[in-house]
Amino acid sequence: MAKSSAKRTHESNTRILTLHVRIHLFVTLLHCLLRILALPYLFPSTYTSPPIYPHLVRLVLTQAACILLYRFAASSTEPELAANGAVESVAMDLADKRSGGWVVEYGFDVVYVIWFCWGVGAALDAVWWVMWVIPAFTTYKIWSLISPFLFGRGGGPVEEEGKKTGKGAASKRKQPAARR
Q: Is the pLDDT of residue 100 over 90?
């Protein structure tokens, strides 16, 4: 029973990773076709092409990031195989958000932002600034995790002034209403 579950999880992971490869190839092809072939010829008077070197550097760096993140996701979902080739167990389920793979989910989010930048960046050069959202968000999350330790904020329950010394602590009973 557990082996059939592991087999289904492995098939689901394979489907998800195959879909990501297909989308990646489609977005890359669309970007290259629009950027290199279509836009300069469709809008020659309004489309001013910037130098190709910065664009190629962005394209190569983001391609490398996507490939690296894909390989990380594929390696983190590799199944353990038995001697006969049957799937014994799977390390992580990509379809289950509760499986604890937050690093892989973050990697997929990075890939989605890169795809957005490729799609819109074929026509607009300024959209590549959206890529700074990723390190900015990461810095924010790390800072919110580390700052309480650096500056001594938080870290425990807040005690009331009367409970610290033991004097002047108010009773928890309701006081009877005063009669007139």
A: no
